[in-house]
Amino acid sequence: MTKTAWTALLPLLLLGACKPGGNELKIGVSAPLTGDISALGQSTKNAALLAQDEANAAGGLSVGGKTLKVRFVVEDDENKPESTATVFQKLINQDRVVAIIGSQSSKCANAGAPIAESAGIPQVTPWATNPNVTKGRKFVFRACFIDPFQGKVVAQFAAGRLKARTAAVLYDIASDYNKGIAEVFRDEFAKLGGTLAGFETYNTKDTDFSAQLTKIKAAKPDVLFLPNYFNEVPLQVQQARKLGITAPILGGDGWDNPELVKLGGGVMDGASFSNHYSPDTSDPGAQAFIAKYKARFGSVPDAAAALTYDAAQLLFKAAGTAGKAEPRALRDALAATSGFKGVTGTITYGGSGDPVKGAVMIRIENGRFVFDSAVNP
Amino acid sequence: METVVQQLLNAAQLGAVYALIALGYSMVYGVIRLINFAHGDIFMVGGFAGLLLALRFTWMPLWALMPLAMLLTALLGVAIERVAYRRLRQAQRMSLVITALGVGIFLENLVRLGVGPETRQIPSRMPTTPVAWLQDALGVSVTWDKLLIIFVSLALMALLWAVVHRTLLGTAMRAVADDKDVVPLMGVNLNRVIAVTFAIGSALAAAGGVFFGQAYSLDPYMGIDLGWKAFIAAVIGGIGSIEGAVLGSFLLAGVEVLTVAYLSSNLKNGIAFGLLILLLLIWPSGLLGRPASKKV
Amino acid sequence: MLAPPPSPRAPGPWALRGLVLGTLALAVALQLMTEAGILPEVLNPYYLHLLTVVGMNIILVASLNLLNGYLGEFALGHAGFMGVGAYAAALLAARVLPPPSSLPPFLGPLLLLLPTLAAAMAAAAAAGYLVGRATFKTVGDYLSIITLGFNMIIVNVIQNIDAVGGPRGFTGIPRNTGFAAVAACTLLTLAVLRALVQSSYGRVWLSIRENPLAAEVMGVDVNRAKLQAFTIAAAFAGLAGGLWAQYQQFITPRSFDYIKTTEILVMLYLGGMASLSGSILGVVAYTLMMELLRNLLGAFAPQLAEWRMILSPLILILVMLTRPSGLMGHREWRWLRPRGRS
């Protein structure tokens, strides 16, 4: 019985396999739709759909004399490296996409990269800031800056603007993003003449930080740096304030999601973080994107959404330049990108997959993200 | 010195929540020898029930909201037992365990789809003002909500102890734990005893969830980690024993907090679990557990 | 509860050898043809990837079956052993041995695989031995906790070793494995485990499962048998880990935490206890189910794609309710049954 059942089911698996589309530009999106940072996966999906519908509403993309419809295939990678590998295999071989956007976290982007690289499919990760992701790879690009730059920006902000002499850091040791920034901050802050009063860690999914914070409180730092994700930071700030830590609080781009303020409420006011872009930007293109996103999904796009949108536009433009929807041509056109103006800034790939881009510092005031200052490399 | 007291207070709050979850594990294990892997997720659902109630009925005070969340979650616990576990009671123990695992994954993703993936917090219904006299006496930050969590949890545990040791129902539960096959012959309705056990265990977990959602946060996947932690706490204390579950929970929370405070936060899990293994090597059936006669 | 009576028509050694060699030849052909891009509609690298994952998972599940099915314990730390193997192989392949590009094709990766996989098995076996020793005094659920604790400790220790990337994971592992190598290792594992459970070792494990007291009275050294089972099971988990590292090219400590253990357990119990056929079937059914749901929902109802995670546990619960001993509990396919046993 079982045998017949399985033989009956097998063809179903084949069902999804389709030929490379003739009149389509098919792009895969690997996003964490479930799992710990699924709120971010949702905004990734939103931004991709927005870019897709916009391009199609305009009649499609003009590529080499033909008009192509854009189709995004969005898959859930659960923010797990293993699942990301499977998703990449499926997108490349089953859906026959010509490029992949994703995945968002550095650990997942890193798991997908070797697959895209060996298949010769260009991969653009919007949000993975860990340096290793693009290192030594021809087909892997990113739309964001990398951790060392961000750590430096925050350290300068702490020592310069806030005139902090001592700093404490609390970060998630089980995540490469958090650890990367924390370590760069530590080194840069020391270079600027500051001393580290505490360097504390926790593990992903911990919700009780009181032990670490009590220890930090005893060290009385001038500033507290929390380079962690938006779903944990508000709890850390709350618990810190409850324990009586009054030092100003700083963060990185992992803070940027509407959830930060929704969850934290007033307690987040006065904190600052480095980011890829500020919704306050005066750039008309960016404002148009923000308005459209807000109208359709009812929230201000976070950096992951803005970067995903930029990644999509980068690929659209590359397809136009290449004149054909073919992975290798796309890759070459992508690598030659220069002075591309996106929502999150200007992108130029100077021979590597890492763009030269600036960062902004954002201050939180009355639950709103307010532009504070811009930092260029 | 202040820091030590502060850390112990932190540990007490965490331990109280662990204990509320651990009790459910222990009770269910006691009556049907099942490691109910869905229990951490029942705790999570309890927290979300509290959240939804708090958002829907903004006027409702905590003393009404919590029992309501506990009641709803108790019903869920009973339903799970009825639908997924009862049929497997005579089957191999491990198929029951895997079913429980499946129920847990189902609950996580159901909540994720129904309520959304975001980390949430229950709007605080407890006074978060500092307890001035205690703060002055100890020189550390103590807020009313912290004290409330610790003492209400302890009160619930005391109540449970009284139910189990002083009522007819409790006697029946202990009898079932002793010998599931003989008890029905004495005219006790086995199904009812088991259902009540699930109800009480789930209600306590829901209380833990409501507290946790106010003191820390809620997300659909939180039950996995906290569930394991509480389960381990129950085992340290000796699974099946109420006093053991409570003792184990405060001990585990204490070790975790003190490891972070005085050794290294990187080693929290390593040291906590190393200690667990050492403890079990010395007391193979937990601190207050009945020694297992070879294999269960 | 014991294995069913052997079929009168259990295949002879030659038929079995033919089956093994045939599968192996098919695996090599599949890999070569897929890599060459012949018939891309059918020989799709995505399917090959799924098959490779299935192979590695079969090794994990079958070896855990040794402990949970045959020995009758409830071990909860299998992913930890896998992690030890993965990191041992990764270290050797990425830091000690020459890169595969400096060696001749085909033969090069093979030459690299042998020492790395051997190291992975040895390292994991050592970890298994330690855990086995630690469980001497405990049984039942307390043993589960000890194995779970070791799993958490292993992950935590790796997270604290910066030389292997700490929590950021180990990058830059050369890709020395493919489907053919995984298929060969899977067959080897199944052959060894089949021989073991049918040997006197297997009898001893079964006797402990059925009645440890009686086994002891009969002169069985329970501790020694446990230690052997743990060491062997861990070694094979390490083998899977070594393959995994050199296939995925990137590993993180969190990939080996109790979530992976849970996944292995689910596949094991879905397939059924004390049955190698069940281990194979459980892995195939689970992997196929997850991917089928992904493809079906993606093709017909993309807006329901996220329901995949809700449907799969429901299916698991349904299977457990209707077939409490799993799909193949305590039964074997004909070709995996012992010959001429009474």
Give structural notes.
The complex is a heterotrimer of chains A (about 375), B (about 300) and C (about 350). With about 375 residues, chain A is an alpha/beta fold. Chain A folds into two domains: about 15-145 and about 285-355, Response regulator (Rossmann fold, 3-Layer(aba) Sandwich); about 145-275, Rossmann fold, CATH 3.40.50.2300. Chain A has twelve helices and 15 strands. Chain A is elongated and about 65 Å long. Chain B is mainly α and about 300 residues long. Helices cover about 75% and strands about 0% of the residues of chain B. Chain B contains eleven helices and no strands. Chain C has one domain (about 15-275): ABC transporter involved in vitamin B12 uptake, BtuC (Orthogonal Bundle). Chain C contains twelve helices and no strands. Chain C has helices at about 15-35, 45-70, 80-95, 105-135, 140-160, 180-200, 200-210, 210-215, 220-250, 260-270, 275-300, 310-320. In chain C, helix 10 (about 260-270) crosses helix 11 (about 275-300). Chains B and C meet through helix 4, helix 9 and helix 11 of B and helix 5, helix 10 and helix 12 of C.
Total domain modules of chain C: 1
Number of strands of chain C: 0
Mean pLDDT of chain A: 87
- Strand content of chain A is 15-25%
How does the overall form of chain A come out from the CA principal axes?
elongated
Overall 3D form of chain C: globular
Q: Stretches of chain C where pLDDT falls below 50 for ≥5 residues?
A: none
Structural class of the secondary structure composition of chain C?
mainly alpha
Name of the CATH superfamily of the largest domain in chain A = Response regulator
With helices defined by DSSP (H or I, 4 residues minimum), what is the helix count of chain C?
12
Name of the CATH first level of the largest domain in chain A: Alpha Beta
- Return Rg of chain A in Å: 21 Å
Task: Identify the CATH architecture of chain C.
Answer: Orthogonal Bundle
Helix residue percentage of chain C: 55-70%
Number of distinct helices of chain A: 12
* Distance between the first and last residues' Cα of chain C: 15 Å
Broad CATH class of chain C: Mainly Alpha
